[in-house]
Fold this protein.
Amino acid sequence: MTDRLRHLTTLEGLDRTALVRLLDRAEAIRHDGAPRDLLAGRTVLNLFFEHSTRTRTSFELAAKRLGADVVNFDVALSSTNKGESLLDTLHTLEAMRLDALVVRHKENGTPELLARHATSAVAVVNAGDGQRAHPTQGLLDALTIRQQRPDFENLAVVICGDIRHSRVARSDVHALAALGVGEIRLCAPPALQPDPAEFPGCRIGEDFDTALRGADVAIMLRIQKERIVDAALPDDGAYFARYGLDARRLALARPGCLVMHPGPINRGIEIADAVADGPQSRILAQVANGVFVRMAVLAELLGR
Ligand code: NCD
């Protein structure tokens, strides 16, 4: 029996048992729903310092579907713009009695910083910090794969795109490696490849056709221009020609290869319309699973 989680800041270091328990809980919620009053009287605050469509909305829906009160803190209109520090913001919000703080921030390590300095029993949930971790995305991606291909040890999973700046790639690899995925291949142009030391056990290459051959799952990533300072990047057309997933390339993978993308997708840059909207796409299943996974995480952290 793994200890109950207190915060969820990363998947790194979580063992198979803890991951499987969260995935099983999310799957059970998908099938049977969850008590609408499980988190009645609890308060969840969304504190997003970066843009978000899926993650913020699904955390809000997840909390509401479990009966919690939800506050969406509006960073743009807040006193953080009057020079209030992150920790003063934390203590101010804590004084209003929160049970969970869902945080997204551009700086690596912000969720840990908040968890360390919290003076109350608030649970900190990482909704993405810098390029470091996006644990609920890692969980929902693992769940999406497991629903179609539970035989993880036989799978070859390719992650292609801006691996260097991707918190999604890091959390996906933490989850998939701990769950025993047979082969994880990372594919990126040289300027967007990560330090291999960060991805032990993964094959890293720059030729997408090679990486795709025989793959069971292809996870496509956006180029995170907001995090790139001065790398020499190909223009969109040249990038698509080498790293875009179109029908011709997808045919190199195993028949039925699952196509995934955390969103937001940039059509015609990393993925073609016909593939994003095609029969092998699990992109909207990922979105749906995001709500179940976030319900499972909030239930695990806050349930009595
Ligand atoms: C990702 C993120 O913000 O890390 N999106 C998401 O949460 N679904 C990926 C991205 O922004 O490219």
Summary: The chain has a mean pLDDT of 96. Residues 54-55, 128, 134, 137, 167-168, 222, 224, 262-263 surround N-carbamoyl-L-aspartate (CB under 6 Å).
